[in-house]
């Protein structure tokens, strides 16, 4: 046995066995090679993804105005999963239309790509687009304002409107520029608005039929300010009684002497410095108080007032007292007036008797002189 172990053949055989074991250990997949295997499998899995990509133009856009093409198109790519994911995230390729050699007019052009990895397959939707190539033109237009005045609260009016900037630059095909009838902003005022409108509003280029013209506006919005207010004026009030008062008269009193009236300019201009406020006393008694609604009392002369109502105290004054105070001759005579009349009549009678007696005496004297 010792001879066998110590022989060269034994060591040669042992070396061969070790070499074979190492060979099979390395070539056989184990736990340490699991990750490499997974990575290899991942790189061979295919994936499909669809996403939107901006469409670029290859053309002299300073000279020509081009319409009809979409801003973005959809592209579907398919290939190794990692490569598809990277392509979708980075979008490091281009989709474009080559228009350099095309003349003015309409053309059907194929969308092309540049920069996609050769390991990927792709499809573009749409594949073709129809573009319209026209000579480019630029003009400036003043901005008009168009709004509904019926949205204003009753009695309110607008002042001088402001637009900033007052003009915009319009760029487009010469044929489209020629269609423009006006450039306008159409602010939408809230119903019943009472305060100044102050907002950014979209600008529109319209033809004579009111339809939008296909052009580019710079800026696309402008600042619009529409002052909204109501006119007012301070006036004094005159309380006037109305209604059937029989034989009674009344005095009307109120702590409110002046009010402020509001309305349109034409309404305020037509109002004097004082206004009559009628007070119905047909069913009133001495000392009654009534609240008079000024809007009802003034009718459509104004829109509203401040205050909106006044409190009126009604005091009764008898007609006899009023007649005596004013010396109305139709109101009848008092007792003192009757006594004075009697005294005057008596005095007149005495004077008449004295005149008769004197006449008799004078007659007697005349007879004596005759004898």
TrEMBL record:
Record's superkingdom?
Bacteria
Q: What residue spans carry the Low complexity bias annotation?
A: 317-371
Please identify the protein, giving its name as recorded: Cell surface protein
Recorded hits in Gene3D superfamilies, A to Z, give: 2.170.120.30, YbbR-like domain
InterPro entries from the xrefs?
Answer: c-di-AMP_regulator (IPR053154), YbbR (IPR012505)
> Any signal peptide, and if so, which residues?
1-31
Keyword terms: Signal
Location of region: Disordered: 309-371
Q: Tell me if Signal is a UniProt keyword of this record.
A: yes
